[in-house]
Structure formats: structure tokens, C-alpha cells
Design brief:
The complex is a heterodimer of chains A (511) and B (723).
Chain A: E1 7-14, H1 19-32, E2 36-41, E3 51-59, E4 82-85, H2 88-96, E5 106-110, H3 117-120, H4 130-140, E6 143-147, H5 149-156, H6 160-170, H7 178-188, H8 192-208, H9 231-240, H10 243-259, H11 262-281, H12 290-303, H13 308-315, H14 318-327, E7 336-342, H15 346-350, H16 355-368, E8 378-381, H17 385-396, H18 405-427, H19 429-437, H20 446-468, H21 472-483, H22 490-501, H23 506-510
Parallel strand pairs in A: 1-4, 4-5, 5-6
Antiparallel strand pairs in A: 1-3, 2-3, 7-8
Chain B: E1 20-24, H1 25-35, E2 38-43, H2 50-58, H3 60-66, E3 69-72, H4 76-82, H5 85-88, E4 92-99, H6 101-116, E5 122-128, H7 142-148, E6 151-153, H8 159-175, E7 180-185, H9 186-189, E8 192-196, H10 226-248, E9 253-255, E10 262-267, H11 271-280, E11 294-297, E12 299-301, H12 305-312, E13 317-321, H13 328-339, E14 345-347, H14 360-374, H15 381-402, H16 420-433, E15 438-440, E16 458-459, E17 481-485, H17 486-503, E18 508-514, H18 547-553, E19 558-563, H19 567-579, E20 585-591, H20 595-611, E21 616-623, H21 633-638, E22 643-646, E23 657-660, H22 669-676, E24 683-690, H23 694-710, H24 719-722
Parallel strand pairs in B: 2-3, 2-4, 4-5, 5-7, 6-7, 10-11, 10-13, 13-14, 15-16, 15-17, 17-18, 18-20, 19-20
Antiparallel strand pairs in B: 1-8, 6-12, 9-11, 21-24, 22-23
The chains are: A alpha/beta (511), B alpha/beta (723).
């Protein structure tokens, strides 16, 4: 109805993020402007890292009218003018709750992600699809101001609440002047300059209304020089692999040269080329070579398996030290001492021995019942000579690697995997592709690696049954997901049992 | 040092006649208490009234000037018993706590207080922890008011109304010799607003004007025959007196409306939600001018039957807006109408949900359905239903576009929390000793029941972790592990748990989280708190209230101190406790100061040291992206907010990799966990030396030269590179 109403602002933030400060600033700003203002929040344990909200109502005081408006303590759907979210998923939550409506809501949200426990504790990729939120925001908000405010805050050397506050001012949706906003920050008296800098960025972005930065952009720098330093490899890739796979294959070859040497990279191509050919004969061209694309990346990663030698090699690299310095924000003149947490066990050590000797050792440890219990916990400082030298020596063992037990075992598994893929593609292209992706099941260290080996064996063993299923690819995919579902591997056992329990096998399992 | 300081805000408590107070609910309540001339106040912290305790403590100087005694009570029972001062003497006092849990703890004293009756006004400010943000079981305090006959005030959620009800509440209490409860819902406790203040009043008696002669009156003693007399007095004198007072002083409010063939009766606390819903439906304006008549109950117990019938008599139907269940008010209103033979139809539960918080949305839907069914005279239903339809449709559309529900984000252990690693250790210990039953307690550590830990099989109440293991323990194959915080320990755990277990020679394991504060409620002090922060650990304190001394005092023999951050040691100690042949109670005191409090304490110190150019080592943890294989076991075992994932920059991989963000406080748990669990070598610890000394620089140069050469890098890294 036409009578005046309060302007409502709902702020969604995570506990400890300074949402309270932000709300406080706004209340102060409105108060200075002589408006009626009311704020509510949810005190207590809800503010320990969890999602929380602050709700503010502002109303101008008509001259000569002292009647106090009745303001609500909670936001209600369809009744929010400004929806502020300090993180993208929280914006999604606001949308889900109906707090963003086309008739009146301006959505101001940061596009960066802070992942929920459910998202980050998943064994594979459990992240919520950010695109869903962006799509909903575009359709539901009367107006949206979306950009990476976390990055903006970092650049300004302040906290995200300052940038959000600036964006609220810049969006021109509140009956308040920019000066009033900035005065509130000054009155706060804490880190004023940094806060004002962040405020400025937020204000500018909101006024300018530039598009949001993409979230989680994976930087894939591709240089003209393919960095292989070996003509023959370059030629083979260009000659024997479909164009759309070449960059990926170059990346793989680079990885393996760095890992073992040019010879090993050739070995990689020896394995890859037949796959690409096979793929082509199975109509791969029409499928963007989905199968050989997967093989190209999984094979390279698998062949560059992480053993003690590799870990030592990676950890003593100069560029790594530089990366760490940058990550921990060490100033130029500040020494940084890096300490590694290593705990090699029987398997790790034995894996460096020749196959026969290694198996004897692990067998011995098994009989003694200490195979998985005997570990040497080490805190090694790779930036101190005492810690660096042994790791450096270890990294020099690269030449010895092809003679080790671990090397032999991984190669066997890889061969088996490639073989299964080849057999599968005869039956079903997509099944073969899913099996190729399953190459990532074997990864990690100690328990994780053992679990991977076990799951890999189970998966490969189940392929024939999947072939018999009505939808081979989907039934295998289901098993693979189960293999990545829980640490104990129970999910996979259950999924297998289910599939075998039903005569029509995978078909019903996926139905 | 509490999480939030009110030292600046409390200055407003000095405001007098003609001034205007601007601030939040709890502070306004405190001001109202002073305007009412209280002589003593106290309570026990717990959201949503934790900060009321902080305000009282920060206001001590002002309180002292007025001779008001502030007691930081050991428990709600203690706080309720404190109100006994008002039984014999004409002195006003107030106590506060979280309800219903706090009221449960206090109920013994409350029953006796209510039976004896009061001379001076006695008020209990209860934070009704119900609905969004609540951290406890969902019940109503209303039942306590009814069963013990304590008047229940439920003011409209704006500062003038709240302040008025505090002041009138004391008068009501004295007029009817009955204690009163002031119920404040979660959001009302911190609602920000303003009101016109009055001068503070001094109590007739106080710390500055003490009582010379104690008074004795057997009629005030809770023993027969007094108790029989007291019960009669409740019904025959106190109740009618209260009803008269409430009616004569118009504590409940009537708001007229043109559509007077229908009406809405609501709890005071629900009034704003009702007005907003009507406004959204176009039936009220922002100033509360409503088309539908409203009867607002600022006193929800006792009801004033004459007011109820007067409001309803002329109406076909009324809607009772009463949050939560059972529907005490709806039933009472029905009873009152039937008794006076008024046939008005009372709607309520059914149109509105029986259970759950009455948010703006819930009330909107309920009132829309009521209007639709009642068809008030002169109201055009069309626009009303349209606006309601529009709102609900928008929400459904958003959900449809999102496709799948947004994952929840419950509260959890903070970055660097000292309690989290204890549960990592429990998870790991399970591998060797087998799964064991854990009887959890109230506190931050209750988060252990959430992912990624899901540890803790039962929660029975504050400080009752150990007590709740006594029945299940003897029936379990393995020993039961009980958890208790230092807060719960002093609240009642020492007696109900420890002393009881020793007395019964129960065989079990107790882990006491010694973090130095009641952290979940905002870092209020506990008896074992150390002046200026920090915690007492191994260093045995001859003086002071020490947990270990208390344990020994009640006869605990097996006691171990363990630093929570050393996961392996915690794991080992747990294993010992689980497997030792020694019977009886085995107590592990897990020492680790709350990291929030610690950071607040040391940050200024560090800043000062660094700016003064003194050497300081900053520690941060990290993950080597190229070593991490994206399995995330570390996250499942640690659960630290700063240990998260980020997209891999490796074009050959797809799964996100673990990543430590810049919130890391360097507690070291992630490294400890990956070590204890033999996870992976991806973690590293970086010690950044600020204001390095000559030796630091020399060693750094050497490092750069030798290591730089060996690692095949003429590109020397570190300082030189930047220099």
C-alpha cells in the first residue's frame, strides 16, 4: 500500500567475519542521518563460524511526525530491500529463503567461496555449483552487485565488511549519503584508513557495476615454447595426437620429463598414442576424444606417482620456497624456516628397494605384525642444511627409481588399467571413458594409497559385470563414486553387493 | 576479559530525567533495573543474555556508586536462591539466565521463592532461547510460571515497552508478593533502539544503607504448615491482586481497528511480527495503525479474563498468535470465553504451526489464512491474497532455479580451537582401542557431534557429561569417555559428576576441556580462570581455585594433564586411560586456552613488539599443492575453518586440493594430525622471523648460498632474491 514503509537490510555473514561491525556501522550511519533505525542479530554460539544474519530497518523521520514506526525483528520473504551476503553460498541461502525478490531487492554479495564442511570433506569434489547461485541471482534480484570482495579487501589490506559497506553505499539504495557512511567508519576509530580504502573499492565497484570476477578460475598458463626441450617428443605429439589433445599431452610430457626424464616421457607417448588411435576408430572425433583426453591426463598423473623421491624433489625446489614465502606473506627481509612433517613407514621405505628385496621386507614386517604400525615421525626443516641434505640425496635417487618395487607395482597397475580400457571400449565408449577417469582412484600416501589400491582392484574386477549391465557406463560410474564416497571403502563394498544382488545388475542399481 | 566489552556503553547507565538512551536491549534492561532501584543483581551467562552479565560486570563502578551488589553466580540455582533476599526485606533484586535450561537448574529455588512470596520486588530476566540461533532444546518457560505461580511478562520488543515492563514488573511483584519473569526472546535481547530515561533510584536498603535487624517470619519458611497457608495465599490474595494491578495499570494493550468483527490476540513479543504481516497484506501501516483490532498481552500469565471477554464479545472470530507449544494461552482464552459464555471462535494453532519459531514468514502465512477464512467486514480479500501469493511464488521460483538445496553451515570449532584436536585424537584412538561411547556435555565442545567428527552419543545438560555416563558405563564393553568443559565442571560437574563417580567407584574416563573461560557464551570467567587471561596447566597453583586440586580434593587418583595441540600425546593418554587396569575414574585435563581469547590477548602484545623492532617469530601452516593428491583426509580429521580446499592449478588433475588460508593462527594441529594419522607429507610449517637478528641474517645467507647451489638454482631465493 502507498503509505511509507521502512527500508529493510538483511546481512548474511559467517561468524567471526565482522558482520556485527558492518551492521553497527550502518546503524550509526542511519542514526547520524536522524532516521529511525532498528537492528537485530542472533547472539551466542550461532556466531562461532556458522552462518548468521543481522537485520536492520531504517526509516526517515517525516518533519513534525514523532510517531515511532513498528519495526520487525526478523526479515520476511518478499520484504527485503537490500540483501547483503559476505560469501556466494550465503547469497544462495538468501535466495533459497525468498529474501531476494524481483520487485524490490538489491543483492550485494561477494562472489568468493568459503566452503562448507560437507563440500570440503568430500573425498573428491564436493563443491556446490556456484553457477546455480549466479543464475538464480540474475533472475531474482531487481539489481545485483556481485564481485570478489574478499580479493578487494585483501588488496586494500582490510576486512570484507569494509568493502561490503562501500558497496552498500555505492548501490544508492539507502537514504544515506556517502559522507554519512564514511563518518561512521571514522567514528568507529579502528583501522580507519584501511577500512576507508576498502570502502572506496566497494563503492566504486557498486557504482561502476562492472561484472563479477569469475570464481575459482584455474590459471592454465600456456607458453609458446612447449618446454619439452626435445624435438622428437614435440613432433610425435603434433603428428600422432589429435589437435585438441596436444596441449594436454605436452603438459603430461613436461610433467614426466620433470619427474623422471625424456625417456619416461617417450614411454608415456608409447602408451598414449595407441589409445588415441583406438579412440579415433571408435568415433572419438565426434566426442571431442573424451576417452583419450581422460587417458592423457590420468596416465600422466599416475605415471608421476608420489614416492619419497618425488616428495623430496618437490619440497627442496627453489621455486617452492619462493611460493611458500609468497603464500605466508613473508616480507623480503624476513627469513622463513620451513618444517616438513614426514612419517615414512615400512611400505614407503620398502617401496624404494628392488622388487624382490622390497617384497621380502614387507613380508617380514607383515609376519612381525608391524607393517602398518612402524613409522618414523620426522620434523625435517628443508631450509636448514641438516634437513635439506638428506632430502636432497633422496631426490638424487631419481635414476634408481625404475628399479624400485613401487615403480614395478604402479606400472603393472597402469598396464592393467589401460588393458581394461581397451577391452571396455569394444563394448561401450562411455564405459571406457569412466574407467579412464577411475585412474585417479589410486593416489595419496600410506592408508589413502592402500585404500586406493584396494578400490582400484575391486573396480577393475567389476568391469565385466558392468559390461553386462543395461547401462554399463552409469553402473560403473556409480561404483567409482562409491569408491570415492567414504574413507573406509564401505560405500564401495555396499554398492558392489547391491549390484551383484540384483540379476539385472547395474541396470536397477542406477534406476 | 570477556569477548565483548561494554565499558563505553555502560556510561549511558548514568543518564537521567529527560535524556535519551540509544543502544541495545540488554543495556536498556540494566538501565531499567537501576531506574527501579534494585539493591542486588546477578545471574549466570548463556545466550541470549550472556551479555547482560557482561554489562553488569562492566558497570560495577556505577553499581557501587548506587550501592548495588553484583554477583557472578556459580549457576542459575545460585542466582535464583539469591532472590531470597527479597522474601523478608523490602529490597528489590534481579537475576538473569538462559531459559528454559537455566530455569530448569534454578527451579528448586524458584518454587520455594514463589511459595514463600516476596516483600521487595523480585525479577528474573530470562533469555528465551527459542527458534533461529537457539542452542538448546526447544521448550517454553511459560510452564514454570504457571506451575510455580510466577507472573510472566512478555513486552512488545521495543526499548520503551521493555523498560516500562521492567519498572511496572517490580510494582506488580510487590503489589502481589510474587516474583515475576521478564521474558526476552533472542532477537529482543540485542534489539537496537532508543528510549527516554529517568534518574536512577537508590534502594530503600543497599550496600550503602544496610539492614540493621534481620526479620524472622515462620510464615515465610517452606515447611508445613506454612506451605499450606502459602498455597492458599497464592490463590486467594496474590493472584487477584495481580489481575487487578495488570488491569488497573493497563499493562496489556488494545489497538483499535475498523474491521471490528474479527480480532487478533498476541503475545507482546509477537506484536511487531503481527503488524509487519498485516502491513505486507496491506492491512496496517508502518506506525501500527491496523485495520484488524489487536489485543496485545504484555503479561502472558496471569490472563485478565475480563479483558479477554471484553475484547472478544463483539467479534465472530479471533486469531491467537502464540509462539511455541503447548498452546497455554489459546487454551486459557478458550476457557475464559466459555466460562463467561462468549461464543467467539478462537483460531490459532492449525492456522499457525504448533511448533517452531514464529518468524515473519510464518506469521504472514498464518494471518493471511486467517483473513481469508474470516473475511473481516470492509476488507477486500483480492489484494490481500494477491500480495501473499506473489511472495510465496517468488520463493518457490528461486528454489526451482537453484535446483538443489544450499548445504547447511552450522557453527563449529573456530580456527586454532584447542578443543578440536582432542576429538581428532579420539577419532584416531578409536582405531586402536575400538569405538567407544562418548557422553558429551554443553559447551563449544558439543560441536564434536557435528561433521567431520560426529563424536558424542548423548547430551544431557550443562556439566552433566560425566553424570550421564553412570548408567550406560556399566553396560558397555569398553569404558565410556565423558567430556566436560571447565565451565560445566564448576557449574555442577564437580559434584554431580566427579564426586558422584568417585563415591560410586565408577570405572570411566573423563576429559575436562580446560580452556580458561566459558567460551561459548563469550569468555566469562570461571573459578579456575587466570587473572589477565591464559590458563593454569601443569604449573600447579598452591592458591586459587584449581581444577586439579579440586579433583584430588574429592578423591580422584588417576589424573593426567595433556596439551591439546599435541594430538599424538592426547591419543596416547586416551589409550592409557581406556586400557589401564586401574579401576575408578580416570581424568584427563586437556589444557589449551581458547584461541579466540588468546588471540585477542596476544595480538596487541605482538604488534607492540614488532613495531618496537624486536625479533618475533610468526608461525603459519600450509599445504604443498603439488604434493597434495586431493583426498582431503586431513580435513575430515581436523575440521579447522582455515583448512579448506581450492581449485587445483594443475591442468592434469580435477579434484580441488587442500589449502590453508590466511586465517591460520599457526596452532599446528593440521601438521600434528597428518603426523599422528600418518596422512601425507603435503603439510609444512613456516616460521617467519620478523625483525631478524644478525645471526638470523647470516644463517639465511648461508642457507641461500649452499642450498641454492645444490638445488640446482642459481636463481637464489629468499631475501637475496627480493633484495
Amino acid at each position: 500500500m502507498s503509505t511509507p514503509r521502512a527500508t529493510t537490510v538483511l546481512i548474511a555473514a559467517l561468524g567471526g567475519e565482522g558482520g556485527g561491525v558492518l551492521a553497527g556501522w550502518l546503524v550509526d550511519t542511519a542514526g547520524r542521518a536522524g532516521h529511525w533505525v532498528q537492528q537485530t542479530s542472533i547472539p551466542g554460539v550461532a556466531q562461532r563460524t556458522g552462518a548468521t544474519t543481522y537485520y536492520i530497518e531504517i526509516m526517515e523521520r517525516p518533519a513534525g511526525d514523532d510517531r515511532q514506526p513498528v519495526m520487525a525483528l526478523t526479515a520476511s520473504p518478499g520484504n527485503v530491500d537490500v540483501m547483503v551476503a559476505s560469501e556466494l553460498l550465503e547469497a544462495g541461502r538468501a535466495l533459497e529463503n525468498g529474501y531476494v525478490t524481483p520487485d524490490r531487492t538489491t543483492l550485494i554479495a561477494s562472489t568468493h567461496r568459503i566452503f562448507c564442511m560437507a563440500e570440503k570433506s568430500a573425498m573428491g569434489d564436493g563443491r556446490y555449483d556456484a553457477e546455480r547461485v549466479r543464475r538464480a541471482a540474475k533472475q531474482m534480484a531487481a539489481r545485483q552487485v556481485l564481485f570478489d570482495m574478499h580479493a578487494a579487501a585483501e588488496q586494500a589490506g582490510t576486512v570484507i565488511s569494509a568493502v561490503l559497506f562501500g558497496a552498500m553505499a555505492g548501490a544508492n539504495v539507502l537514504p544515506l549519503s556517502r559522507d554519512a557512511f564514511e563518518d561512521a567508519i571514522r567514528a568507529g576509530g579502528v583501522a580507519v584508513d584501511a577500512s576507508l580504502a576498502g570502502f572506496g573499492r566497494g563503492f566504486y565497484m557498486a557504482q561502476d557495476g562492472r561484472p563479477a570476477n569469475p570464481v575459482g578460475n584455474t590459471s592454465q598458463a600456456v607458453s609458446d615454447d612447449d618446454g619439452l626441450g626435445d624435438r622428437t617428443l614435440t613432433d610425435r605429439i603434433n603428428r600422432n595426437l589429435p589437435g585438441m589433445l596436444q596441449e594436454l599431452a605436452r603438459e603430461g610430457a613436461r610433467r614426466l620429463i620433470d619427474y623422471q626424464g625424456v625417456g619416461y616421457a617417450r614411454f608415456y607417448l608409447d602408451r598414449l598414442e595407441p589409445m588415441a588411435k583406438l579412440d579415433a576408430t571408435r568415433g572419438g572425433a565426434g566426442r571431442q576424444f573424451a576417452l583419450s583426453r581422460e587417458v592423457t591426463r590420468r596416465l600422466a598423473v599416475w605415471m608421476a606417482f608420489e614416492d619419497l623421491i618425488r616428495v623430496a624433489d618437490l619440497k627442496i625446489r627453489p621455486e617452492r620456497v619462493a611460493r611458500v614465502r609468497a603464500e605466508v606473506r613473508a616480507a623480503a627481509d624476513e627469513p622463513v624456516i620451513i618444517t616438513e612433517f614426514l612419517k615414512p613407514g615400512v611400505d614407503e621405505v620398502a617401496s624404494l628397494l628392488p622388487p624382490r628385496l622390497g617384497r621380502w621386507a614387507t613380508g617380514l614386517a607383515d609376519r612381525a605384525g608391524v607393517r602398518y604400525r612402524m613409522n618414523v615421525g620426522m620434523h625435517v626443516s628443508s631450509t636448514r642444511l641438516r634437513g635439506f641434505l638428506p632430502m636432497w640425496l633422496l631426490s638424487r635417487l631419481r635414476g634408481w627409481r625404475p628399479r624400485t618395487l613401487r615403480f614395478a607395482e604402479e606400472q603393472d597397475r597402469i598396464e592393467r588399467w589401460l588393458q581394461v580400457i581397451q577391452d571396455a571400449v569394444e563394448v561401450d565408449y562411455d564405459l571406457a571413458r569412466e574407467i579412464a577417469i577411475a585412474g585417479k582412484v589410486v593416489r595419496g600416501y600410506s592408508d589413502t594409497h592402500r585404500r586406493g589400491i584396494r578400490n582400484f582392484a575391486l573396480l577393475m574386477g567389476a568391469v565385466p559385470e558392468c559390461m553386462a549391465a543395461r547401462e554399463p557406463a552409469r553402473s560403473f560410474c556409480r561404483l567409482r563414486d562409491a569408491a570415492l564416497a567414504d574413507p573406509e571403502g564401505d560405500a564401495l563394498d555396499i554398492a558392489l553387493a547391491e549390484m551383484r544382488a540384483t540379476p539385472t545388475s547395474g541396470a536397477t542399481a542406477v534406476a | 576479559m570477556a569477548e565483548r566489552s561494554f565499558t563505553k556503553e555502560v556510561e549511558q547507565l548514568r543518564l537521567g530525567d529527560g535524556d535519551t538512551f540509544v543502544g541495545e536491549g540488554i543495556l536498556a534492561v540494566t538501565k531499567a533495573l537501576l531506574q527501579s532501584g534494585v539493591s542486588y543483581v546477578g545471574g549466570y551467562q548463556g545466550a541470549p543474555v550472556s551479555h547482560l552479565m557482561d554489562v553488569l560486570n562492566d558497570a560495577r563502578p556505577i553499581m557501587d556508586e548506587l550501592g548495588v551488589h553484583v554477583e557472578t553466580c556459580a549457576s542459575e540455582a545460585g542466582a535464583a536462591a539469591m532472590l531470597g533476599a527479597s522474601i523478608n526485606y523490602p529490597i528489590r533484586g534481579a537475576a538473569t539466565w538462559k531459559s528454559t535450561v537455566g530455569t530448569n537448574v534454578a527451579s528448586d529455588a524458584l518454587s520455594n521463592l514463589a511459595s514463600a512470596g516476596v516483600t521487595g520486588g523480585a525479577m528474573i530476566v530470562i533469555g528465551e532461547d527459542y527458534g533461529e540461533g537457539a542452542s538448546i532444546i526447544q521448550e517454553r518457560s511459560h510452564a514454570f510460571a504457571v506451575k510455580s505461580q510466577i507472573w510472566l511478562l512478555d513486552p512488545r520488543p521495543n526499548l520503551p515497552s521493555i523498560v516500562k515492563m521492567v519498572e511496572k514488573g517490580f510494582e506488580l511483584s510487590e503489589a502481589s508478593s510474587t516474583p515475576v519473569m521478564l521474558e526476552l526472546r533472542i532477537r529482543a535481547c540485542h534489539v537496537h533502539g532508543s528510549f527516554a530515561t529517568r534518574d536512577n533510584q537508590r534502594g530503600t536498603f543497599s550496600g550503602q544503607n544496610r539492614i540493621a535487624d534481620p526479620s524472622f517470619d515462620y510464615g515465610r519458611i517452606c515447611l508445613p504448615p506454612s506451605t499450606y497457608v502459602q498455597e492458599k495465599d497464592k490463590i486467594e490474595r496474590r493472584w487477584p491482586a495481580a489481575v487487578d494491578f495488570i488491569r488497573d495499570h493497563e499493562l496489556n494493550e488494545f489497538f483499535g481497528g475498523s474491521a471490528d468483527d474479527v480480532g487478533i490476540i498476541c503475545q507482546g513479543g509477537m506484536y511487531n511480527a503481527v503488524i509487519r504481516a498485516l502491513q505486507q497484506l496491506g492491512l496496517a501501516d508502518v506506525y501500527g495503525e491496523s485495520v484488524i483490532p489487536i489485543y496485545c498481552l504484555n503479561v502472558t500469565y496471569p490472563l485478565v479474563p475480563s479483558e479477554v471477554t471484553a475484547f472478544c464479545a463483539s467479534k465472530r472470530t479471533v486469531l491467537m498468535v502464540e509462539e511455541a507449544q503447548p498452546a497455554y494461552l489459546e487454551d486459557a482464552v478458550n476457557a475464559a470465553l466459555r466460562k463467561s459464555d462468549v461464543q467467539t471462535r478462537v483460531m490459532g494453532k492449525g492456522l499457525l504451526p504448533m511448533a517452531g519459531e514464529y518468524t515473519g514468514e510464518v506469521v504472514l502465512n498464518g494471518i493471511a489464512r486467517f483473513i481469508e477464512g474470516a473475511v473481516p467486514k470492509g476488507v477486500d480479500l483480492g489484494p490481500v491474497l494477491d500480495s501473499h501469493q506473489r511472495i510465496t511464488a517468488a520463493k518457490q521460483k528461486a528454489m526451482k532455479i537453484l535446483g538443489e538445496p544450499i548445504p547447511t553451515r552450522p557453527p563449529s570449532f573456530c580456527t586454532g580451537c584447542p578443543e578440536r584436536p582432542v576429538f581428532s585424537a579420539m577419532k584416531l584412538a578409536e582405531k586402536s582401542v575400538g569405538k567407544f561411547h562418548v557422553s558429551a556435555d554443553i559447551g563449544c565442545h558439543t560441536f564434536s557431534t557435528l561433521p567431520p567428527f560426529n563424536i558424542g552419543n548423548t547430551v544431557l545438560g550443562y556439566g552433566l557429561g560425566l553424570a550421564s555416563s553412570t548408567g550406560v558405563g556399566p553396560n558397555m564393553e569398553r569404558r565410556v569417555v565423558s567430556v566436560m568443559g571447565d565451565g560445566g565442571f564448576w557449574h555442577n560437574g564437580l559434584t554431580s559428576g566427579v564426586a558422584n563417580a568417585v563415591f560410586n567407584n565408577d570405572d570411566g574416563v573423563l576429559v575436562i576441556m580446560n580452556n580458561g573461560y566459558t567460551s561459548a557464551t563469550g569468555h566469562q570467567a570461571v573459578p579456575s580462570s587466570v587473572q589477565g587471561g591464559g590458563i593454569r596447566s601443569e604449573a600447579f597453583q598452591p592458591d586459587g581455585q584449581d581444577i586439579e586440586r579440586a579433583l584430588r580434593g574429592v578423591g580422584v587418583k588417576w589424573i593426567r594433564h595433556v596439551r591439546t595441540y599435541s594430538v599424538s600425546r592426547v591419543m596416547g593418554t586416551l589409550r592409557d586411560a581406556m586400557t589401564t587396569r586401574r579401576g575408578g575414574l580416570k581424568v584427563i585435563i586437556a589444557d589449551g586456552e581458547c584461541q579466540l581469547a588468546r588471540q585477542r590477548r596476544i595480538k596487541p602484545e605482538v604488534r607492540a613488539r614488532v613495531t618496537a623492532g624486536k625479533r618475533d617469530v610468526r608461525t603459519r601452516f600450509g599445504v604443498d599443492e603439488d604434493v597434495c593428491t586431493g583426498d582431503h583426509s586431513c580435513i575430515r580429521l581436523s575440521g579447522c575453518p582455515s583448512l579448506t580446499v581450492k581449485p587445483t592449478s594443475d591442468p592434469l588433475r580435477d579434484d580441488p586440493v587442500a589449502h590453508v588460508n590466511n586465517d591460520c593462527v599457526g596452532c599446528g594441529v593440521c601438521g600434528e594430525v597428518s603426523h599422528a594419522a600418518v596422512l601425507c607429507p603435503s603439510f609444512f610449517k613456516a616460521d617467519i622471523v620478523r625483525n631478524p637478528g644478525r645471526f638470523d641474517r647470516w644463517r639465511e645467507r648461508l642457507r641461500a648460498r649452499v642450498i641454492g647451489r645444490l638445488s640446482g638454482a642459481d636463481r637464489v631465493t629468499g631475501p637475496e632474491a627480493a633484495a
